[in-house]
Known about the structure:
Blueprint: H1 2-10, E1 22-31, E2 35-44, E3 47-48, E4 52-55, E5 58-66, E6 75-76, E7 81-87, E8 96-99, H2 103-124, H3 133-138, E9 144-151, H4 154-165, E10 168-169, E11 172-181, H5 186-195, E12 198-202, H6 208-217, E13 221-224, H7 227-239, E14 246-262, E15 266-279, E16 283-288, E17 291-303, E18 306-307, E19 310-312, E20 316-321, E21 332-340
Parallel strand pairs: 9-11, 9-12, 12-13
Antiparallel strand pairs: 1-2, 1-8, 2-7, 3-6, 4-5, 4-8, 5-7, 10-11, 14-15, 14-21, 15-19, 15-20, 16-17, 16-21, 17-18, 17-20
Helix pairs in contact: 4-7, 5-6
GO molecular function: GTP binding; GTPase activity; translation initiation factor activity
Organism: Abiotrophia defectiva
Keywords: Cytoplasm, GTP-binding, Initiation factor, Nucleotide-binding, Protein biosynthesis
Amino acid sequence: xxxxxxxxxxxxxxxxxxxxxxxxxIEARLDKGKGAVATLLVQQGxxxxxxxxxxxxxxxxxxxxxxxxxxxxKVAGPSTPVSITGLNETPMAGDHFAVYxxxxxxxxxxxxxxxxxxxxxxxxxxxxxxxxxFDTLKAGEVKSVNVIIKADVQGSVxxxxxxxxxxxxxxxxxxxxxxxxxxxxxxxxxxxxxxxxFIIGFNVRPTSQARQQAEADDVEIRLHSIIYKVxxxxxxxxxxxxxxxxxxxxxxEALIRETFKVSKVGTIGGFxxxxxxxxxxxxxxxxxxGVVIYDGELASLKHxxxxxxxxxxxxxxxxxxxxxxxxxxxxxxxxxxxxEIKK
Length: 343
């Protein structure tokens, strides 16, 4: 300490009391009567009552200030510890503080810091997936499995909800956070992210925006068309038996622009690829108003009159779906493949 003081004296290391105050939080607590109380050490400048201030991820205006003897003061200079009130939340010990020009600037800076901290926390949060569900339950990290259900009709919603709520494995139950009819949308993903839930889609698909948001937020969407498969998958996951070998990969989307009925052949759909590609060996779904109408395989894929292996983004073609002839204009054709999961 003597060496530090000597070096400081030689180099004239002195705090400037004329600038806006900055420093560090020594401790902080929540007082029932006063709200958030933070003990600060002023390291540079002078802190005044009514100063707009940002402390860690919190902000406010210094409403009252007391010194280390508990006496009210209006000014605190360098190297002075003081306790303040007036913050919107309780900061953390070790946080840094700074006085701002006005309350508007302090609020904007504090809210931005809080937003970044929340994003960082969310990224670090251990999200539950079907693959890690058993280990998560075993570790006691969750006591219930949160699920959001979207289905094509109300009857499916009710049947699936009732079936899932009957599942109980070692005292852990399934909680239905939300259920509704219709395509999986961005609001569903936002709710799933906030509640650490799966989304189960029964005969419905996510919108492209919802799919992108789910990937960004690490929200798992499971798509099914048979109720007992949903139940079986959830039970296996909760018992630690789930060991999927394949996963679905959507490779493209096409929009039906016109249809042609050919006798003894079937219905040909004239389409344009609007995203990715459609391949001859891909599986396809016919989606109408966000609801899956048919799921099957292609009988043929053409570009003009030629049989082709694929039609890529922005190009037109014609297709026939094996066993299905009710294609309509404006139907979306979703092409997908089942890809082996790398262990």
